[in-house]
Design a protein that fits this description.
Blueprint lengths: L1 E8 L4 H12 L5 E6 L2 E6 L6 H10 L3 E6 L1
Antiparallel strand pairs: 1-3, 1-4, 2-3
Length: 70
């Protein structure tokens, strides 16, 4: 497992935090460590494309992924 941080645009309030947190919590194999305005910290598998489903969940919730670190 490895830690990643995803930067997210379009988040501005508590509702945004809950929407992103709930979207990420529904993705199998991802553990949400923290969601803050503008970013999410996650624990994902070591697979090269492990961040892909997290990015898709964030975008499906209506937010834009700006980058992935880790």
């Amino acid at each position: 497992m490895r830690n990643i941080t995803i930067t997210i645009s379009g988040m501005s309030c508590g509702h945004c935090l809950n929407a992103v947190n709930n979207a990420l919590a529904a993705v199998p194999g991802i553990t949400v460590k923290a969601v803050q305005i503008g970013r999410a910290e996650l624990l994902v598998s070591d697979a090269p494309d492990a961040a892909g489903p997290a990015q898709a969940a964030i975008e499906a919730a209506g937010y834009k992924v700006e980058g992935v670190l880790g």
